[in-house]
Amino acid sequence: xxxxxxxxxxxxxxxxxxxxxxxxxxxxxxxxxxxxxxxxxxxxxxxxxxxxxxxxxxxxxxxxxxxxxxxxxxxxxxxxxxxxxxxxxxxxxxxxxxxxxxxxxxxxxxxxxxxxxxxxxxxxxxxxxxxxxxxxxxxxxxxxxxxxxxxxxxxxxxxxxxxxxxxxxxxxxxxxxxxxxxxxxxxxxxxxxxxxxxxxxxxxxxxxxxxxxxxxxxxxxxxxxxxxxxxxxxxxxxxxxxxxxxxxxxxxxxxxxxxxxxxxxxxxxxxxxxxxxxxxxxxxxxxxxxxxxxxxxxxxxxxxxxxxxxxxxxxxxxxxxxxxxxxxxxxxxxxxxxxxxxxxxxxxxxxxxxxxxxxxxxxxxxxxxxxxxxxxxxxxxxxxxxxxxxxxxxxxxxxxxxxxxxxxxxxxxxxxxxxxxxxxxxxxxxxxxxxxxxxxxxxxxxxxxxxxxxxxxxxxxxxxxxxxxxxxxxxxxxxxxxxxxxxxxxxxxxxxx
Length: 497
Prior knowledge:
Number of helices: 16
CATH class of the largest domain: Alpha Beta
Number of strands: 17
């Protein structure tokens, strides 16, 4: 098939397919880490395997006779798998508009490829059965690279499908078992990484949840029933609110800290908290408590010093953000409301946050140590974070500042090693400190190269029991780590076909 138009269309198919995989499946949608997408991952795995066969055949072989029929069957089965995939996607997730457009273009382009390839296949089908080696120069080289790429992602998707069941986190309602029944909870930041899991737990446990969000479309992914509001004006004075959880704020570790961004990060937290204060003042019945977000960045960059809630702070922008947020929240205590400030460490889970951004690079061998690797990382597992919030709501003895971190902080080099081992991948790279510092400025210096060694002294004093006190076992559990990878691929391929 030395038709240049056909090869141009194949090249377009390769480019659009790569865009769909990298930007959507691996990027925004992160399908490999969503237990709900097991069937879709199986379909992708088998389809990519067939694509590898198709690319190699088009680029390096001319099939005759029965081999032509076999190739035609594969081409037809790919169409059926794609149609099934479209139905599965619509049933299990909300596709971004860019993915829908890309899928439409892929389908149209594939149809054009079949139309141009059909005359060749028809002629070859009448020839004696044979596989004739051919070469089309650069086109064949491109086909080989495309086959290698889709083959790699075929194995990756089948592996991800095999571990899907191991990503199941069980009944979320268990996380809020310590709450009295039928609580009315008002939540800001409910569409974020922590908030979504907290909402799920509360709803499954039959509590009443109100979520404030600027854009109601962001709440479509939440487990319902949930009352969604866009302004505190929608909360009436006589409404019952038992507790408020305030997690809202612009992301900190997300781009350069320009003067405008620094101001926006602080104002987003302070303005929301002041609006909550005004709401509480006018309510006929005050909530029992406010659980307010903060971060261990309040302590600044402190080296190897072990930091309890009584520790002092050091200068840093992250301290300024947390300090202003905390001061704003503590004013609410004047309304006879118990205020708890959660100084949160790195919240680790496969659904979002820092760990979610690292999973794909680590899975493809791109993980490594940041800077010297000696900076401390104080962390807490995602569900343990929800349990800490629940405990803070339920336990009247807890008030003031609480370090929401696991009892065993680790250095960056230990974290890197543990994550690589959980994913069965090497992590031999090192990202120089100067690269992160010069490239990302203060954001890189404070959030990636700096750190705090924080101890959850108050939680332990109150008898809180962490389900995940140690990093390495936690990472193995939440990533669905398992030995026998080759057997997983074979079993998953048999299940998928």
